[in-house]
Amino acid sequence: MLCRWAAGRAMRHCRFSLPGVTSMVHAGAMSGSGNLMDFLDEPFPDVGTYEDFHTIDWLREKSRDTDRHRKITSKSKESIWEFIKSLLDAWSGWVVMLLIGLLAGTLAGVIDLAVDWMTDLKEGVCLSAFWYSHEQCCWTSNETTFEDRDKCPLWQKWSELLVNQSEGASAYILNYLMYILWALLFAFLAVSLVRVFAPYACGSGIPEIKTILSGFIIRGYLGKWTLLIKTVTLVLVVSSGLSLGKEGPLVHVACCCGNFFSSLFSKYSKNEGKRREVLSAAAAAGVSVAFGAPIGGVLFSLEEVSYYFPLKTLWRSFFAALVAAFTLRSINPFGNSRLVLFYVEYHTPWYMAELFPFILLGVFGGLWGTLFIRGNIAWCRRRKTTKLGKYPVLEVIVVTAVTAIIAYPNPYTRRSTSELISELFNDCGALESSQLCDYINDPNMTRPVDDIPDRPAGVGVYTAMWQLALALVFKIVITIFTFGMKIPSGLFIPSMAVGAMAGRMVGIGVEQLAYHHHDWIVFRNWCRPGADCVTPGLYAMVGAAACLGGVTRMTVSLVVIMFELTGGLEYIVPLMAAAVTSKWVADAFGKEGIYEAHIHLNGYPFLDVKDEFTHRTLATDVMRPRRGEPPLSVLTQDSMTVEDVETLIKETDYNGFPVVVSRDSERLIGFAQRRELILAIKNARQRQEGIVSNSIMYFTEEPPELPANSPHPLKLRRVLNLSPFTVTDHTPMETVVDIFRKLGLRQCLVTRSGRLLGIITKKDVLRHMAQMANQDPESIMFN
Amino acid sequence: MLCRWAAGRAMRHCRFSLPGVTSMVHAGAMSGSGNLMDFLDEPFPDVGTYEDFHTIDWLREKSRDTDRHRKITSKSKESIWEFIKSLLDAWSGWVVMLLIGLLAGTLAGVIDLAVDWMTDLKEGVCLSAFWYSHEQCCWTSNETTFEDRDKCPLWQKWSELLVNQSEGASAYILNYLMYILWALLFAFLAVSLVRVFAPYACGSGIPEIKTILSGFIIRGYLGKWTLLIKTVTLVLVVSSGLSLGKEGPLVHVACCCGNFFSSLFSKYSKNEGKRREVLSAAAAAGVSVAFGAPIGGVLFSLEEVSYYFPLKTLWRSFFAALVAAFTLRSINPFGNSRLVLFYVEYHTPWYMAELFPFILLGVFGGLWGTLFIRGNIAWCRRRKTTKLGKYPVLEVIVVTAVTAIIAYPNPYTRRSTSELISELFNDCGALESSQLCDYINDPNMTRPVDDIPDRPAGVGVYTAMWQLALALVFKIVITIFTFGMKIPSGLFIPSMAVGAMAGRMVGIGVEQLAYHHHDWIVFRNWCRPGADCVTPGLYAMVGAAACLGGVTRMTVSLVVIMFELTGGLEYIVPLMAAAVTSKWVADAFGKEGIYEAHIHLNGYPFLDVKDEFTHRTLATDVMRPRRGEPPLSVLTQDSMTVEDVETLIKETDYNGFPVVVSRDSERLIGFAQRRELILAIKNARQRQEGIVSNSIMYFTEEPPELPANSPHPLKLRRVLNLSPFTVTDHTPMETVVDIFRKLGLRQCLVTRSGRLLGIITKKDVLRHMAQMANQDPESIMFN
């Protein structure tokens, strides 16, 4: 979510954004009318820009791009050089995608390597080269057997290095302290960097990216500083052992890359609509590198993040996602030349009867989603409204300290969360040394490695169960407080960890039940003695999918990401059953996913495509002015003086004014933007002679007939949008909402039998929707 | 494409569709104004239906569904029974998906089994049970070695059965004749069945489904008869050995299933918009079973077939596609419990240098696509315009005879096309008995089976190359003539076969080049002697993707389908390189894919989402009436008599009339549909007393003030759409096109300063677009 500092900045900005304070000049490129205007001058600087924290007009952006395209196409016939330039322009989309893929993949690889090293740094250091992680350090060591590799002499725990003790209580305490110290150091560094250099680098970024992609301007949110600081601090916070993931922030990082590269090409940098196409693709690349799942990434971008997703974008997103995935693979941070984060391979199919525990896991995921969203939103609201929000550094330090203190004693919380998930997903092979695989083996077993029958659980498994249960409770609680602090934080990994722990416990339970009760009617058909019937790792995976689904309400993309992790269509049915159940359970308690909830909390003007508007209201109920309010401020086409208009602009704060034939007939002829009016008048007063306060302003083609001694009139037709969008007062609001959504309008005028009645802005629509849903309409803050 | 008979029927229908001839009654449910009307009577029968070969109004359908939903929600609070009914209503979407998946999967399985059997029937018969295919027959035989299984005694060729000869010239000729006879019989049966029972069952169906999904009515196109006949004839034509596939028709079959099941639930049967959501999902299920690729199917539906694809549909499509895939797998028609049609597994990676031949294959695919589309469209146009179209049965017989005569002698064309593709895709293992794998083995080889180094080609490979080259030329030519005949015919499989043959030949070429010239600079780095560097099967797959891409212009869905076939992300890069190249090459010669070309040929009103409109025209250039034409036919709100209106209706054939305040002011108050006007007047004349030809008709709330002795006036407000869509005359056409596309309008009124100027219909937009693209605007036939 947007950090408080940033939000504060935004509010200030909004409150004080007086005309003329910010650069606010653009001319003649309103929705579609650009080609009709009589340009007096060359275009002013900052053509087609928007104010910060304002909504863009999609139709107008599209129209401007078509104009640009038309110009290039017609020029391309003139000379070979222009033709080459037009080809370059056509190719620039692909070039941008390639660059995004390369940079996002590289950054993801670097982050993975750095996190690896710094996570291990909390426990010890490599003597041969301090920049080696534990695994790299011992890889080069001479101990070649599998068990000894973990204890190679080159890798020294802090206690060994500092007091030369590797066992015993004092060594343990020393290591414990070092662990906490490093965690605190990393967290402090991260929060300070974010605070000082890039306040927008905090949070997961997905709510804001959703809002930006829906057509909103948040300047600097995808800037170069944000990119740099978010990358660095992401490494720090993940290494600090806090209960957060790097997946959401990676999407933000990839979008920053997208924004950076799109600023290199005028096609994208000068058009907010086209820029958003690039950002959609960048989001896909981000998920692609986060999980190593390019198809899932594209679907995630389509389903969850993007707003307008033309088919051309689909193809390019796919390209960017693939390039990113292959770049990451060639960096090979996991050292196994696998693309995916959690590579698993199961050897047994699943059985119908197992659907019951899978659906139970789905219910658990839905409940967890509800609990997390409610808890987290309540806590974030408290942070926004109470003193708590004033001490972000202290908050991070305290949460880090609590996390480190509680996490260290438990082996399942001490290690990094993604390692934990990986271990929980894995099937127990014969050589597995993990405590979770401490089964009692039949010494006479001669089966091949990948077909081990169900075995009774050993002591290790029972210990692991206890530790997992404690870790689960701890994760659930701490994640609610962690997500939303002023550091980069994603929640994919913590959610998956919660689900994986619950799932693994259920899985082991079912496995032991099946082993000890082969004769029960539910097991009799598919689980004979000596068969390998239950795969606890699969339960962990199903649980992870359920919990992730409960929190984010992803559907297809979730299943496809999980499918890409396992690579087998076999397990899609369990995953789907759990995902559907979890979504239904969570939806029963509240329709909003965590991202929508945070968008809502921050008051962004986000018109969700998924919400359905089902009320019976009409345009006339929503439009301004309401009954009893003063009439709509309009301009007349040829009877107001410059002074009249200046007074009107000064006295109101509307973004634009409808232009009518006369106040009596109220017949609409167009719409003039406030920014453009101000600029045009200022310009005319400076440059055009004879323009005084008494000059008549006219929007028609021909000047009106004036008395002989009246001052020179001012023609303003070029700032007039001749094709404003209108609906009649009887139009049902569901149609109006649909039009706003599909066409991406900023405002829409309301008429009755050709007479202008009022205006509806996007903010009005959102406030009306909030009111209909019994929410506070004032929560929508931006226009 | 639509068969000629059907098209003829359509044309007749259009020409004679006088008011009142067809059932044309629906009332009060126009876009959004339904809730405002003063219903005099209960709704008339056929509420909300459309005429055949007409365009639907998406906004209105959506509005009607919201009304329905609102009604159910408010009722559900009244009693438990209503609550259960509302739950059932909410669930019906999932139930429909489940049913579609089950039926589509079952039908696909049955088709596969029947095709297997009937294809083999052309060559011989099983003695133990005549309904066994060759493989099933010999499966139960006692010969257990792999080579002998093909020659099991229970399976008898026709020559063996009839004259007891298995070798020799006369046996060959007899088998040849039987092959041709069976093929002719199958083809004759198929074309006769199609002709007599279901003319719509011909073609691939995808162009029509695209048109239907974009909001067009073709009654009976997805009917039960079409479903039945298409399923049966599909088996016949595929078995007859014609150069066609079953993939496109399977999409049609699945959509028929979708239509059938949606007719069981009033939520879908009574709303053309909702019905199309179901059909989109059914299309996904169709591709899912055609290739065993559920994710690819969903993306195909999204990218290629669907028009409006809300996110809810994505999730449901995925569900339907999965259910269908699993149903197919449990029927297990391929006998290997594999889901996919062409299962392949390669053991070697690809190398950078191989990208060059892959891109060459892409160029070939693009050229093939262009050649095929041009040739096929030219031939189909000739069929439409010359005598040729009058002898569809003869045409099928002749093409079948030619195909059978030429195909039999060549082993690569004699077998079924999907077997051919499967063989071409496969890597040569050590045990492979295929001629294509007749390499000269090194007798000292001790390597494992899946790591065979490159070997010199043997005689068999060279023979196979020649035969493949001949088969390639034959396939290219015959497919152009086959696609579009009056039988079900898909072109996925023939296109893939063309590409696979070309690819395999290139692959073998590169392999032999690499083997014999290890020292060339291009091979030196990655292909040392004794290494397995080139996989000819991969080239076949890349070629298949390129050719399919060239013909259909699929992008993401193509790559994902291919990816699901191999299951390895490794090969996505070659596939993508070929798909991108092929699309670019083909696009350079013409933007239309085969489906769009057929839509165009048939004159359907299809507003492609992918086309970009980049011309500088304005709404005023497109609207009717044009300059010099008589003024727009309008109704006034309270001054026309019933007779005036009846005359107007009789003299014009417009679909509706704008209603204005008065002819002088021309201020728009609404829009009245022709059908509804006719019905309302008829109804009033029958039921309401005092309504005569002289009665004044009024659309206002209150009756106008009339002289004392005037007849009783007729109130028609309830047929008035109070929220017609308007744009100003200065609106650029690119915006108008965008609005038509995104909102799914039928017509749009044009105003200037509140005065009505004219009207733009979807047909006008399409004709204008055709004109701008230098095409014949009259080719758009339907409204």
From TrEMBL, chains A, B:
Question: Which UniProt keywords are present, listed alphabetically?
Answer: Antiport, ATP-binding, CBS domain, Chloride, Endosome, Ion transport, Membrane, Nucleotide-binding, Repeat, Transmembrane, Transmembrane helix, Transport
Q: Which residues cross the membrane?
A: 91-115, 176-198, 218-238, 250-266, 278-302, 351-373, 393-410, 464-484, 491-510, 538-563
Gene3D superfamilies reported for this sequence = 3.10.580.20, 3.90.1280.20, Clc chloride channel (1.10.3080.10)
Q: What SUPFAM superfamilies does the record point to?
A: CBS-domain pair, Clc chloride channel
Q: Which InterPro entries match?
A: CBS_dom, CBS_dom_sf, Cl-channel_core, Cl_channel-4, ClC
Its cellular-component GO annotations read: early endosome; endosome membrane; Golgi apparatus; plasma membrane; synaptic vesicle
> Which GO-annotated molecular functions does the record name?
antiporter activity; ATP binding; voltage-gated chloride channel activity
Q: How does it sit in the membrane?
A: Multi-pass membrane protein
Cellular location(s): Endosome membrane; Membrane
User: What's this protein's family per the entry?
Assistant: Belongs to the chloride channel (TC 2.A.49) family.
UniProt-recorded name of the protein: Chloride channel protein
